[in-house]
Specification:
single chain, 257 residues, mainly alpha, 75% helix
Length: 257
């Protein structure tokens, strides 16, 4: 007979990861906030003052959702991948796997902590943005919804990377070589409607476009693609990650060998 969900196990993993987050607060919070502040200074003030409004929104305000999304994507992947990689590296993963807890509880603890860190960082960056530019959030509930969905989806993706990686250098390959370029090319600093028509169509194959577009819509009511499509693409990506995580535990890929 099913014993239900072991919330104590989830809480233990979650608390352990959050305590590690607090121990590295300078690296976890200060560094991304400083980097984002530099983006606002360079792109928002120096360049933005010379650019016309985009879809009726000042350029400095227009880039706020993109910068928040850039931080959330990279930090979600980094936190989740490092969180599961370290037990593999130290060998303590076998203690976790041998404990009477399910794969769902293990993933909930690690991914939940990584997503929480990313959401905290995203909200801090939103507060930091207020120091540089005035902006409004037309749909705050939708904004939180996209924030949560994106954090969870990319934390799941980071969990997969952490299981796949067999060295510290591999932890950085996907975020550095794939995710960050896709984010820069996904409309974080511009509207894809500003591109030539052929490039607009090519850009639609970039999944980050839908994340940034939906998140920006929650702020200003404008988007490059429909908000329904943005939400659907986010959910599809999350489902693909969930399937991949299920296959990892079902086959024991790189965690039981």
């Amino acid at each position: 007979m099913s014993q239900g969900i072991n919330f104590y196990a989830i809480k233990s993993i979650y608390q352990f990861e959050m305590e590690r987050f607090l121990r590295t607060l300078l690296q976890s919070i200060a560094a991304p906030v400083i980097s984002t502040s530099l983006y606002f200074i360079v792109f928002g003030s120096a360049i933005g003052s010379r650019m016309a409004a985009i879809d009726g929104v000042s350029y400095a305000a227009f880039i706020v959702p993109g910068l928040v999304m850039l931080s959330i994507l990279t930090e979600s992947i980094s936190n989740a991948s490092f969180g599961i990689y370290m037990p593999k590296y130290s060998g303590t993963i076998y203690e976790v796997l041998s404990a009477p807890i399910s794969a769902f509880e293990i993933v909930s603890g690690y991914v939940g902590a990584a997503a929480s860190k990313s959401m905290i960082l995203g909200l801090i960056i939103l507060g930091t943005a207020r120091l540089f530019v005035d902006y409004t959030i037309l749909h705050p509930i939708w904004m939180l919804g996209f924030l949560i969905l994106t954090s969870v989806a990319f934390s799941l993706f980071g969990f997969i990377i952490g299981v796949w990686a067999d060295g510290f250098e591999k932890l950085q390959i996907v975020p550095t070589m794939i995710v960050t370029p896709l984010t820069f090319l996904g409309g974080s600093f511009y509207s894809i409607n500003m591109l030539p028509e052929v490039w607009q169509k090519i850009t639609l194959f970039n999944p980050v476009v839908y994340l940034v577009s939906g998140f920006r819509w929650s702020f200003f009511g404008v988007s490059d693609v429909g908000v329904g499509m943005s939400l659907a693409m986010t959910l599809v990506f999350m489902m693909l990650c969930l399937i991949a995580v299920w296959l990892i535990f079902k086959t024991g890929y790189k965690i039981k060998v």
